Amino acid sequence: MRVVHVHRIRGIGGSERHLLTLLPALRGHGVEPLFVGLDDLASDPEPFYRALDAEHVRLACPRDLDPALAWRLRRELRRLRPALVHTHLVHADLYGALAAGRTPLVSTKHNDDRFRLGPFRYVERGLARRAARLIAISESLRRFCVDRVGLPSAKVEVVHYGLDALPEPWGDAGALTLPDDARVLLCVSRLAPQKGVDVAIRALARVREQEPRAVLVVLGEGQERSRLEALAGEGVYLPGRVGDVAAWYRRAEVLVHPARWEGFGLALLEAMLAGTPVVATRVSAAPEIVEAGTTGLLVPADDPAALADAVASLLADPARASALGAAGLDRARRQFSVARMAERTAAVYAASSAER
Known about the structure:
Blueprint: E1 2-9, H1 14-26, E2 32-39, H2 46-51, E3 55-60, H3 67-80, E4 84-88, H4 89-99, E5 105-109, H5 120-130, E6 133-136, H6 139-149, E7 156-158, E8 183-188, H7 197-210, E9 214-219, H8 225-231, E10 236-240, H9 245-251, E11 254-257, H10 266-273, E12 278-281, H11 286-289, E13 296-299, H12 304-315, H13 318-335, H14 338-354
Parallel strand pairs: 1-2, 1-4, 2-3, 4-5, 5-6, 6-7, 8-9, 8-11, 9-10, 11-12, 12-13
Helix pairs in contact: 1-14, 3-4, 7-12, 10-13
């Protein structure tokens, strides 16, 4: 079965990492994966294509709305002649629905962004009628799509992200010099209000009252950089994106994930694969990934004191932190493997094609 995936590419985030892992894995299930990228040239799509293991086509997508893009995508789909088109996120959903013609569509929902609850939800409901199946990357996201966005329950299936290993480096770990005795708290996140990095920064001051060697390293970029830099006090480092994230997961004593909402939270799974214990907020999909008290700790959102107390408890008890990390690694391997993700995705394709 030839399946063309469509996604707007701005860099490598969670959904892009998902595609880099999923597409090669689908070949073992009778799927020939191809990719059409809608490139935002104002960003940096090149690292994604260097890592992509699939035949691909690149179409420029400099604007959110571009009627000519739908025509160009339709031309490419006619040339590629897929049995199914699989779209990811808003831009691909819209242009894919316009361009796919009679070809069956599958759409993956990767996040529970709050804009989906506004007027756009009516557009999304219309696009859902065109799709044969909708994939949600967590049960929490499935409930959000059905109960709050209004998508048809019968069409929405859950396929969790899967990973078997930490990200391969595309560069170095960054030129960041920390004190030799630093105890690293790591946050891997876009610098956006959704991610709650401001909460982690506020929590660090409280953590350092108990453990002055604690530092917070935040890997990521985004629109909140200026505000977060102004908020950051002693012990906070914001080096931006680095080419070797895995090195930081292995160096960190705790992953801090203070998101206010989250479709899945790939950083949680990456930390578990590194054997690094997690302290995350009890929101959205986090309780599906982190087994509270067994593979990590969960705290309320927007509560710097609770976050700080949980982190400090692990820094004060390395044996417990190590046990949580080991349990997380075991859970990641059992529940969130690439093979399991690919098998479930291929089953969605088979069901979609059978309904033609």
